[in-house]
Design brief:
ten-stranded mixed sheet, 25 strands
Length: 646
């Protein structure tokens, strides 16, 4: 952004200087619309990495010159079959009973600084394209101000499609009103836009193949100081990524998908979900606390067959005070409110099974079977059921080194596998796995990935079979410790927590359990119509030729439309589609259009033939000339010159 921002700022200044005659039609909303609509998409890059694409000044100028006030959406459509642009939506199909897929859409309003969605959006499923198999819910901003708003689209699959496999398609219709004053006629400042949706549906996977990723209990900087998970990375002290499956755990996500698992991301407390649909719940490096109701429900769910994988991280109150830093913005010393993970909260969650982590910060390399990995700033197990499987490895006390000590090396238990028991006859209880470090699964500071370990743990939680590499490395049980890690005194975690209400004298009070999200599906208005299989080339971000509303602007734009179209034709002769990428120096990356290549090929062939004909005629003429010289003309010249010589 430090480079992109000044470049785009200069481009906006240049564009605005060329369309001053358009007056109030050019505003922050229309300028952003033009920049996004004219950008050239880069192939092979996701929308969360490239946004709308590469800046195109000429097309942006064309858009602004012919622009009429209207509203638009970004992205303008959703196509889960289009990779790589719609990553991660394109990596996992939808199925019945899955958590709704949510796509956040930006509403851009070029008609005025304020506006609103005039009525509830309408869902139009396409009958020939199985659109009736989708349930669509929406939520949106009450006011579109300034110049923009938001639209959240929730997509889920209906029960009648539980065994369906194919493509479902339809579109949303949204109407935006943006009167500039009370006296204005709303119809002149109204824009109706569509949002096409195209998704792939598959039959519902079996329970043991469905994983649930707990995102609700992950916190990140800002607003609080949540430190890095690897204490050796001193140049990157903050946990920016929030431990999301699509950011710093992206490679883990791709590994799980390649192994045939389907992963859903949980954004609500445990009490809001039907855990009987999932084989394994993954809690990765949590910083948040847990509601008492969540702990109670999770115990029941595990008795009913849900398996649990908990991955912790380092935690030590003395080390936390050591890694404080001075924030130049607030002019205050920031002390972490928790460690790499909230170990006291994890211990509360697992306490019912006699499982707990300690507060010794450990590091070192170790091997299981023929696999090598690294343990970076993690925690060891200090309590585990005696009938469970424990793996201990030799590691170094990194916390002691940070505090000025030598760092003693010893054998520490870091991994535990436990088969729980149930009181219900005929019900198989779930399994619990506890591991002390997440860095080998995290892309942020990864040195030796351990996806093989996650695959082995999922083999155990899914089937109950203990992999050989873990079974051969098992060690004797551990003697439980009496004292467990405590929370930091006078910490301010409640300021950023979704669970804690207050902290008075280190006595914590929890907030009321939040209401679960109840989605209201839009009433379908089916259309018996067909749609293109490629939405990118069909769906236009802006209606450059017409638009809705703004009659005076439309007339003004029509006066220069032909000139700009000619300009666009000359531009399109260089780069005519998004596959044709041009760098900032003007060189084409992937070649021009097929028509241009054919013309230049024909010219090259004709030129080559002309040159060959000229060469042939020259050689033929030279041969004939020499022949005549040596016969007739030469003979006469010789008879004339010979007497003179004599």
């Amino acid at each position: 952004t430090s480079v992109a921002s000044p470049v785009v700022t200069g481009a906006v200044s240049l564009l605005y200087s060329g369309v001053l005659h358009r007056g109030s039609v050019i505003n922050p909303g229309s300028m952003k619309q033009a920049l996004i609509a004219s950008a050239r998409r880069l192939p092979g890059v996701g929308m969360f990495e490239q946004g709308a694409g590469k800046l195109d000044l000429l097309k942006a100028y064309q858009t602004l010159t012919t622009y009429t006030p209207q509203a638009s959406l970004s992205p303008p459509y959703l196509d889960s079959t289009e990779c790589q642009y719609f990553w991660p939506y394109c990596t996992q199909p939808l199925y019945f009973s899955a958590l709704p897929t949510i796509i956040n859409v930006t509403i851009l309003n070029g008609m005025g600084v304020t506006g609103k969605v005039s009525s509830t959006p309408t869902w139009h499923p396409y009958i020939p394209h199985n659109g009736g198999y989708l349930n669509i819910s929406v939520s949106y901003s009450d006011e579109i101000w300034p110049w923009s708003g938001w639209l959240a689209v929730h997509i889920s699959v209906r029960e009648e499609a539980a065994q369906f496999e194919g493509i479902a398609q339809g579109h949303l219709s949204i109407t935006i009103e943006s009167p500039r004053s009370v006296e204005d006629d709303p119809s002149e400042f109204t824009s109706t836009i569509t949002f096409p949706i195209r998704v792939k549906i598959i039959p519902t996977p079996p329970r043991h193949r469905r994983l649930l990723w707990d995102q609700y209990h992950n916190l990140r900087y800002p607003p609080g100081y949540f430190p890095r998970d690897n204490l050796k990375m001193k140049n990157d002290p903050l946990d920016w990524n929030g431990d999301h499956l699509h950011t710093n755990f992206r490679s883990l996500y791709q590994n799980l998908r390649s192994e045939g698992f389907y992963i859903e991301i949980m954004g609500e407390p445990f009490t809001c979900l039907n855990m009987s649909r999932y084989g394994t719940l993954i809690i990765m490096d949590p910083e948040e606390e847990f509601f008492p109701e969540e702990i109670t429900k999770l115990k029941r769910d595990i008795e009913d067959g849900l398996s649990l994988i908990v991955v912790g991280d380092w935690y030590n109150t003395t080390v936390m005070k050591k890694v404080r830093f001075f924030d130049e913005n607030t002019r205050l010393w920031w002390v972490p409110d928790t460690g790499g993970a909230n170990i006291p909260a994890i211990n509360d969650l697992l306490g019912g099974w006699g499982i707990a982590f300690g507060d010794i910060v450990l590091e070192g390399d170790f091997s299981l079977g023929n696999h090598d990995t690294v343990f970076s700033s993690g925690s060891s197990l200090v309590r585990f059921p005696p009938d469970g499987v424990v793996v201990s490895v030799k590691l170094t006390d990194q916390g002691d080194q940070i505090l000025g000590g030598q760092g003693v090396s010893d054998s520490y238990p870091i991994l535990g596998l436990y088969q729980t028991r149930t009181q219900t006859i005929g019900m198989n209880a779930g399994r619990i796995v506890a591991y002390g470090d997440s860095n080998c699964l995290d892309n942020s500071h990864q040195t030796k990935p351990c996806y093989w370990l996650m695959n082995a743990l999922l083999e155990y939680t899914s089937t109950g079979h203990i992999p050989k590499i873990i079974r051969n490395a098992s060690s004797p049980g551990i003697k439980p410790k009496d004292i467990l890690p405590r929370r930091v005194e006078k910490n301010k975690l409640h300021r950023y927590s979704k669970v804690l209400q207050s902290n008075i004298g280190d006595v914590y009070s929890t907030k009321p359990l939040p209401q679960c999200n109840k989605l209201t599906h839009l009433e379908a208005s089916p259309l018996n119509t067909t749609a293109s299989s490629t939405l990118y080339k069909v769906q236009r971000l802006l209606d450059i030729d017409g638009g809705h509303g703004g009659g005076e602007a439309a007339l003004e734009g029509a006066s220069v439309l032909e000139d700009v179209r000619n300009l666009a034709r000359r531009k399109d002769s260089i780069t005519s589609s998004y596959e044709d990428e041009m760098d900032w120096l003007g060189s084409v990356d992937t070649g021009g259009s097929s028509n241009n290549r054919g013309v230049w090929s024909l010219i090259l062939i004709l030129t080559s033939l002309t040159i060959l004909i000229l060469i042939y005629r020259f050689l033929s003429w030279t041969h004939i000339y020499r022949y005549i010289w040596r016969t007739r003309f030469g003979h006469h010249l010789y008879t004339y010159i010979e007497p003179q010589v004599t």
